[in-house]
Queue: 4 jobs
Job 1
Amino acid sequence: MTGQEYDVIVVGAGPAGATAAFHLGAAGQRVLVLEKERLPRHKPCAGGVPTSVLRRFPVDFSPVVERAVRRVRFRFADGREVVTDLPQGAVVTVRRDRFDHYLVSQARAEVRDGTPVADIRQDGAGVEAVLASGEAVRARYLILADGANSRLARWVGLRRGRRVGITLEAEVPADDHLLAAFDDAALFLFGLPVSGYAWVFPKSDHLSVGVGAFLGRSENLRALLEQEMARLGIPLAQARLYGHPLPVYLRHEPLHTGRVLLAGDAAGLVDPLLGEGIRHAVRSGERAAEAVLRGDVSGYTARIHREIGSDLLWGLQWARFFHAHPRVSFEWGVRNPLFLREFLRLFAGRTTYRAMALRAPFLVVLGALCRFSVDTSRLLW
């Protein structure tokens, strides 16, 4: 039985889906957001967000900002550490359950949570989503933003044979002493026996910790996380561990078929080196909305690859080198303030992996000449 008709159905209320709904609703479209979980729902994520992403919305995010990150600490497995200041207000941390719920609540859209989609059917005039309840809703277009495990993407013939990394994360309750020890700094741990890193991100009353293997699976993530957190004095006994797939970008592939478009993790738009996905999720949600508003989605895949995917393939090369040569990468990359500046600018969306590759010889030589004595905080932007 077919129910109400909409202009656009968005499946998934994460950053990509919420962004698409926000822009479509602002343009006067009738938007339905379908989220299988009850909102707000837990989402394993370190929760670091560049404020440049938040500024893409005419919205005050202060109600869901946990903490401002003012410093970044990079530590290698042998104990070497580099600490650098960030420009004021450059990065904040959020809890994804609150952040996602807040963002989708700002959209002029009908939101139905606790509503799984059982099937998708499309024809030349539109798309029909069949809900688990048996109800069918129809729209001119459908945006799939239902995450890394999007079975609906596979049902419409997209993202088949994908490969994902994996993360193991926890929200750790912290007393005042433990919060003060990590304060306003994000900590990254490199040189671990995985193609990724471990991390500690400060929140208002707890710490988000985790470890990720971005380019391959690891059978020892739990033991590795417990080992590294024990070294840092962070107790995991009271914390629940969550595993989460990480759909890193590995190749160009179709991201739309007919009137169905993929965005965010469902499109595999996770950075192969940083493991970061929120920035690209938001951008892809914007592009999906723009394609729908034009009434022509034929160029959507090409645009995503041009604006996001092509540079992530450069990032894939950086990731392969970094994980194959962790000591060299830490010494000549992380400990080189010129390289470090570039990576921080990359996270803020102010440069690209391709631009970094072109500048790499210059950065290495100049970094060696100055003996790593440059004040990075003066060079960030």
Note: Residues 372-381 have pLDDT under 50 and may be disordered.
Job 2
Amino acid sequence: MEELTDIQKIRLEKLEQIKKLGINPYPFSYNRTHFAADIIDNFDPDKQENVKVAGRLMAVRKHGKAAFCNIMDNSGRIQIYVRKDKIGDDQFELFKLMDIGDIIGVEGEVFKTRTEEITIVVKDLVLLSKTLKPLPIVKEKIEQGEKTLYDEFADKETRYRQRYLDLIVNPDVKDVFFKRTKMISAIRQFLENRKYLEVETPILQPLYGGAAARPFITHHNALDIDLYLRIADELYLKRLIVGGFDGVFEFGKDFRNEGIDRFHNPEFSMMELYVAYEDYNFMMELVEQMIFAAVKNVTGESAIVYQGNKIDFTPPWTRRTMGEMLKEYTGEEIIGKDKKELLAIAKKLNISIEPVSDVGKIIDEIFSEKVEPQLIQPTFITDYPLELSPLAKKHRSNAGVTERFEGFIAGKEFCNAFSELNDPIDQKERFEQQVELAQAGDEEAHVMDEDYIRALEYGMPPTAGLGVGIDRLAMILTNSPSIRDVIFFPHMRPEKASASDED
């Protein structure tokens, strides 16, 4: 069990003293009337305004029987002025037992100090939550007009593991998540304006499908069956197209039992869209318009800077085939080669290939190594090999490839789309090929889904499908270098038993 620090012992003693004063240190509610930012933005020196605000005590500067303090709420910080002769002996005694980090409510009138800082002079003070652990407060000082932070709460692992502390101490982090939500809202509004229906499909599935990935497995006790956390929404959403919906989309969590790095988290957010009677050309135009609208909504601009690169989202975006780009960056004709030839090319290019890799995976590895890092501006890469795309239609005019595209920004894929395969006989043959790959050792091969084949046998219209990685898009729009920066609670290794809290 963790040993209490001296600071924690002192805070526990203060908690007992507060209780002895007959004060509940954890009351049920507080009827605040204003937020800090609203008070500051709407200050009128000719109007005496009474306000009630609540927030976390973040700084205290005591001067005998008075103190200037800062409290922080969801909108920002505001200064308060506490004087014994204003709040009385009992409340001032309570104030002396308060610490940085405590959540308090104050009522008082707003004025501007001689240093031009908008301040609340407190006439009533309430403790709303007594903190028992000290905050890792970020200190700052101004030198020659420049602000310098020191004692900064900056350790990445601790910040991700204790996101609640990160949000308290590093207020800029909140802005990342406000922008993420604004981005999602803009995409949702864009799709709703086109009369597409937002739906929900199962997360627990008897068969996983819709992507090349290893699933998480769980067990349903009442039915006594194994179930899988979905790796994609695709096959259920296309069942709805079979059922007669012309356009459906879903924002949802997907789960893939894969490694963790700055672009991958085993639990991640996707938006998938399926539109009947359209193809991948239609979907390319929709994607560039939708992402452009989201960027404008979040940033007010058509171009942003991500990790030092200025990226312009103005449509139309560059469109190149996978074969063209592989030729340009490797000097080799890649598409159409057999496994032996591809292995020789990969060796020549110093690209390591897993022994069980099929033709599609070898091409994908070469593309990932040699082409992806070059795709900084928004770019559609089209016409992927048949072996890489078991759910996409064969190209209408080019043999060996499919009507598929992926969208890339800042050197990383953020979306994937097809002219969806709706021929049940062709689809079954593709699934059978995937089963053979699984039997040969490919853990990410697609499983056979007989019910999905049955659905296609009832007829699915020509359909365009799309999947967008919400987390990766949020990274770009918030200039975040890691996917963990845009997920509130990313997956982490378990804490060591001996690890202590960050004080």
Note: The first strand starts at residue 50 and ends at 63.
Job 3
Amino acid sequence: MLVVVALIAAIGVMAAAAFTGGLAGVQLRQASREVASQLRHARVRAIATGTPQRFTLDPAAHAWSGADGRTGELPPELEIRFIGARQAQASEGEGAVMFFPDGASTGGRIRLVRDGAAWDIDVAWLTGEVRLSRADVP
């Protein structure tokens, strides 16, 4: 009886890993959600405090910094691509999104890629809305 339960549990774990893309897929989704969450936090802080807030991303260092001195790192296995306004960049090779007190932003897209899977985090320039979506990798 215990052997049957153990086999069912093992099959369930393998099936779940196959459907979700395994640990690499979980890591990619988790990193994407974290970046989107921090972008949303920066937007909310800009509106709440009435002062512009900057979210910066350093793809080479796999690190980000956001509102209220928040910082974090992204897994080194991820490929990070940033498309955004050059005027908001703090330094060469670094991406940045500025959020303004009215909720607007400089806009941009952050793409996180791993093992042929990708997620896009889009920031609308007019509204500052942050959207997370699965992306097709060319």
Note: The beta strands are 53-58, 63-65, 71-73, 79-84, 95-99, 108-114, 117-123, 130-135.
Job 4
Amino acid sequence: MSKSGNAALQARREAAKNTMEDFTRNIQRKKEREMAELQFVGGEATAQGPVQGGQKTGRNDPCPCGSGKKYKKCHGS
């Protein structure tokens, strides 16, 4: 190949590399935004209020807050 052919090939490779790096950065930014959004939403959703109840809940019974966890792992700790 001639020098101009090598230079053109090198320029195309560099352009392709830059395009892939930009693509990767954009994906990373999108992923970070989604994770931040999930953490924000998740922070509100996991906030648990006080347990309202009349009957005493056993340690191994499901928690009355509706989390699906055992009472001892949720509000019993």
Note: The chain is about 55% helix and 0% strand.
